[in-house]
Amino acid sequence: MDYSQYEIYDFHNRSAFNMSTGSNERSYQQHWHSYGEILLVGPGERNIFSVNQKNYSLVEGDFVLIWPMEMHAIIDADRKESLVIQFNSAFANSLFDMQRIMHFYHNLHVLCIKAHPELVAALGKIANQMKEIFFSNKFDREIQCCMLLMQFMMILDEHRNDFAEDLGTEKRDSYPDDVIRRMMYVTDYIKNNLTDEDLSQTAMADKAGLSKDYFSRIFKNITGQNYSKWLNLIRIEKAITLLSDKDMPLAEVAMLSGFQSIPTFNRVFLAEKGMPPSEYRELYAIWK
Questions:
Q1: Disulfide: which of 32, 58, 81, 105 matches 42 by Cβ 3.0-4.6 Å?
Q2: Is the pTM of this model over 0.85?
Q3: Which domains does the chain have, with CATH numbers?
Q4: What are phi and psi of 257, to 5 degrees?
Q5: pLDDT tens digits for range 188-202
């Protein structure tokens, strides 16, 4: 197998994990996909990446975090020795803690070794363990790499207080298991019922059996977002999934995602993704 192939288009239909390295090309066009991606930056004086139309100039050992369905590109960077880790969103979404971590760090796209040397060094060690296992062709390499990916996310989550100020969140609090289970139930309910008439914070707090204020505080601490921001994010994620069907009208995409009108859909999508949904769909079509 050629492990220099950056995008293996159908890997997410067959497995939970993929990795690539060794490409001679220094750029890759703007695109998006349903799976998540972690890039370990290679050597060289120029390493420029774009995520959600924001450019980052990085150095060897830094990480780029690209969460599922985010627009991204490699503008000009070493791809010969850089490492690309890709993980299936279905796998990630099957674990509440993975979902929680991804939503908490939704606005975090780079981990710089100069700013967080101990954390990034620890994550780099895990990434290189993945590389060693993945390229060994061991029969159980996928499960070993997924276990290391979960360890990567756990270590990142252990340092969330380091990023609380940057992400506009409070420092971690601990909550009883019963409360966490209630929040899991509510978030799962929302994702499966985006067209419900009443998904207000008050209604969901009642469903969880918690006061509105307590629900609000726990929700932001767990997800990294206030409730309305998170709900819009989930609606946008659903819309992006539907946009991959080029024959589905935008009005239907908006409706099935829970938006009450096309103007609201366009406004929220533009604010979150930096471009209208029609343009986002076109870029997916180009990538495919």
A1: 81
A2: no
A3: 11-167 (2.60.120.280), 177-287 (1.10.10.60)
A4: -90, -5
A5: 899 899 999 999 999
